[in-house]
Known about the structure:
By secondary structure, the protein is α+β, with helices and mostly antiparallel strands. Helices cover 35% and strands 25% of the residues. The strands form two sheets. It has an eight-stranded antiparallel β-sheet with strand order 5-4-3-2-9-8-7-6. A five-stranded antiparallel β-sheet has the order 1-10-11-12-13.
Amino acid sequence: xxxxxxxxxxxxxxxxxxxxxxxxxxxxxxxxxxxxxxxxxxxxxxxxxxxxxxxxxxxxxxxxxxxxxxxxxxxxxxxxxxxxxxxxxxxxxxxxxxxxxxxxxxxxxxxxxxxxxxxxxxxxxxxxxxxxxxxxxxxxxxxxxxxxxxxxxxxxxxxxxxxxxxxxxxxxxxxxxxxxxxxxxxxxxxxxxxxxxxxxxxxxxxxxxxxxxxxxxxxxxxxxxxxxxxxxxxxxxxxxxxxxxxxxxxxxxxxxxxxxxxxxxxxxx
Length: 269
């Protein structure tokens, strides 16, 4: 991968050589490129060829979801000489009474004898730092503390520590996966009629001191000290939020379609 254009698009001019450089890479990526289900909802053809992903992200500013975000991160780290592999997880969102399909792609980094999760594709809860395996939590954006729990010899969970009890984001193992495995998960995630991203408008950006999150008719701004929520009740308000907060431009037809089917519908219901 020739990563020069990608790194320039997120404001990084120096080489990626250390863990601190990777942290800067993560933060620059998740504050520039939106996590988004918009292309899925508009039924776009979403090739996972790297050049196609980069065109959607850099040239069209369309954003994407985990299969796109974390493939870019994998290829970037690999091209800079890091030992990294992509792995698969089951999204739980704190539910242990279900066994969902493996639909979440993220990365495992080995660096100076330690292992870390690198994940820029879990929406507004994506960790803004490498998360180290072990018993010490890692504080990320808005002081969210992440920890990797070893459930048994081959199973792990990524959790956020909360005041009451841990919140489980996803479970995973460390076996080797191939691109065809991710292609299958990607196909399910953007084609299956019951898939989350086929049925929900989701958009987020993670800034240094603020998280922007839009889900259907609810737009939230989260900071360390407060949470603001706005219910979107007009197509003009919807388009304004997309453009002003997410730097996301849509033509009139696409904006109207999304508003009527995923914003207004929920407000009306």
